[in-house]
From TrEMBL:
GO-annotated biological processes: negative regulation of non-canonical Wnt signaling pathway; sprouting angiogenesis; ubiquitin-dependent protein catabolic process
GO terms under cellular component: cytosol; membrane; nucleolus
Record-given protein name: RN213 ligase
Keywords: Ligase
A molecular function (GO) term: ATP hydrolysis activity
InterPro entries from the UniProt entry: RNF213 (IPR031248)
Length: 80
């Protein structure tokens, strides 16, 4: 949710890192963003769960990758 929220606000996601147990927004705002970005017109709860699970795994892997660390790559891969 935090990444999608910042993406919609056109924030620099390269400088953002998720902080465990931090809470932002309301449950309604979270659901609205998931519905907007999941790519399915009328998703089931299972489809929303799969979308959020996959997105979470990808973002966690991205944060763990040295190639996505702005301190390591500097500006060579900006926006990648």
């Amino acid at each position: 949710f935090q990444y999608l929220k910042r993406f919609d606000q056109r924030c620099d996601l390269d400088a953002f890192w998720y902080e465990a147990h931090s809470v932002e927004g309301s449950p309604a705002e979270c659901l609205q963003l998931f519905l907007l970005h999941c790519g399915i017109g009328d998703p089931s709860w299972a489809e929303l769960r799969n979308f959020t699970w996959f997105l979470n795994v990808q973002l966690r892997d991205c944060e763990a990758s040295v190639f996505c660390n702005p301190d390591f790559v500097r500006d060579t891969l900006r926006g990648f």
